[in-house]
Amino acid sequence: MRTMSQKDEIVAVIIEMIGALPQPPAQRATPETNIARDLGLDSLAVMNLVMQLEDRFDVSMPMDRLAEVQTIDDLAVTIADLQGG
Amino acid sequence: MAILDKFKPQQAAYTAMKTTGRDPFSVCFDEVVTPSEAVLKGRRIILLGTNNYLGLTFDRECIQDAVAAVRQAGTGTTGSRIANGTYGDHAQLERRLAAFYGCRSAMVFSTGYQANLGILSTVAGRGDTILIDADSHASIYDGCRLGGAEVIRFRHNDPDDLHRRLRRLGDAPGNRLIVVEGIYSMLGDTAPLTEIAAVKREWGASLLVDEAHSLGVLGETGRGLTEEAGVMDDVDFIVGTFSKSLGAVGGFCVSNLPDFDVLRVVCRPYMFTASLPSAVIASVTRALAHVHERPELRERLSRNAHRLYRGLAAEGFVLGPRVSPIVSIRLPSSEVAIAFWNALLDAGIYLNLALPPATPDNAPLLRSSVSAAHSDDQIDAALEAMVGIGRSLGVIAAPARRARDDQRAGVRLGEATWGQPGHGPARVAVTGS
Ligand SMILES: Cc1ncc(COP(=O)(O)O)c(C=O)c1O
């Protein structure tokens, strides 16, 4: 079973990775941040970020799952799910 | 909100581009005169962006056969292959394609796009996983969306990343299908097929290679990258198109799988669209014979590709990682790319403008495709125009300056360094690597 703290840890890693991007967003990301809309990232930058996360958590995110992700929290839930599965 | 309002951002970008020059998406030639020349607004221009790799669009024999076929079989089949659209010529072309590849079966589709749509959506189904190169052509992405398989992207041309992703799948049920391209259409780079075939074998996956840009271009007999890399036995499906080196329109898939022909009654993009007119089948059949019988076309193409690539590299342009008939120049911004493209057209050279986000690494590109039909003079004229405009736009340095700039010649895109405003020189990798 996935625990809350596991998901929260993933959220923290995602936020940290976003902060370390070559062109980080002006405002610090939060779990509610919409990845495509609020971070000023183009689709390629989003893909690269996702691939970095996939390596970090040793998962692959199928494209249909990715399509449902909007916020950083959604992304963390998906990664936690894939890890648990 | 009106139904098309969702496209406001694209509309705005398109309008902005049109105000800075011509509309690159609707160049309309008065006349296309030869495989390498057209007339645009009354002026002769050199065509350097048409994927007409072997220059067969005006081949005398191809035209003769097409004319004979249109007279004999009429202008269209008016139906799909399974309804009323299989003529003897379709079946014969399929046999010729199978023989050309040394494969058991071949299936002809109405376009290359539909071949990918059909094969990918059908051979992999619910419970299966398709692993595609992140830089795949739109038809591969769309074919994946049409089917029920899970789709996972791996980093462009990165067999290690592919390996990791197969490992992550573990022993989950379902088949795995790996999809790569022979030559990638934006930069002209090729897949590391030997390594990918090894990963495929290790994990017991199936492998599909889209040879759209490599049929008739690579390999001892023109079969493509699969042949060049010597991995015919490892590739389960080869997809290709008639719309580039074969100079017509249509697509195909060949395979050695014993039950391949069942796809004819389950593959919807094959079943529910009209089959190709006989005239197209006839010219394609002849063009395929040319690939086989006239290796000198491939040699000429290769010579022309080297001439353009070397010439541009020597001037300091940043190009794709390998010499191929697709020669792409990387430019620092979309504004420069659009200005460059317009200036080239003014100078009588037509090629492709590729803008983000449709390009690897989001780099604006000027994409040339060289043809066996180009003369040395045409390649040199294009080179001269590109160098002149490149200098005046500051994309490359003038000769005196370049001499000091120490050997930038031959810079490869995969290892290029770019000065980015505010960030100093940054290492730029080919997408995903
Ligand atoms: C890699 C690749 N696959 C498939 C296609 C589709 O081919 P067609 O133009 O025959 O539909 C293209 C070309 O557009 C392509 O570049």
List keywords for this structure.
heterodimer; A: 85 residues; mainly alpha; 5 helices; 64% helix; globular; B: 433 residues; alpha/beta; Aspartate Aminotransferase, domain 1; Aspartate Aminotransferase, domain 2; 2 domains; seven-stranded mixed β-sheet; four-stranded mixed β-sheet; 15 helices; 16 strands; disordered C terminus; binds pyridoxal-5'-phosphate; pyridoxal phosphate binding (chain B); Aminotransferase_I/II_large (chain B); transferase (chain B); pyridoxal phosphate (chain B)
Summed up, what is this model?
Chain B: Its cofactor is pyridoxal 5'-phosphate. By secondary structure, chain A is mainly alpha-helical.
Description:
The complex is a heterodimer of chains A (about 80) and B (about 425). Chain A is about 65% helix and about 0% strand. Chain A has five helices and no strands. In chain A, helix 1 packs across helix 5 (about 70-85). Chain A is globular, with a radius of gyration of 12 Å. Chain B is of the alpha/beta class. Chain B has 15 helices and 16 strands. Chain B has helices at about 10-20, 60-75, 80-85, 90-100, 110-125, 140-145, 160-170, 195-205, 225-230, 270, 280-295, 295-315, 335-345, 375-390, 400-405; strands at about 30-35, 35-40, 45, 105-110, 130-135, 150-155, 175-180, 205-210, 235-240, 250-255, 325-330, 350, 350-355, 365-370, 415-420, 425. In chain B, strand 1 (about 30-35) and strand 2 form a beta hairpin. Residues about 405-433 of chain B have low confidence and may be disordered. The interface of A and B includes residues 51, 60 and 64 of A. Pyridoxal-5'-phosphate binds near residues 111, 185 and 241 of chain B. Pyridoxal-5'-phosphate binds near residues 113, 137, 139, 210 and 251 of chain B.
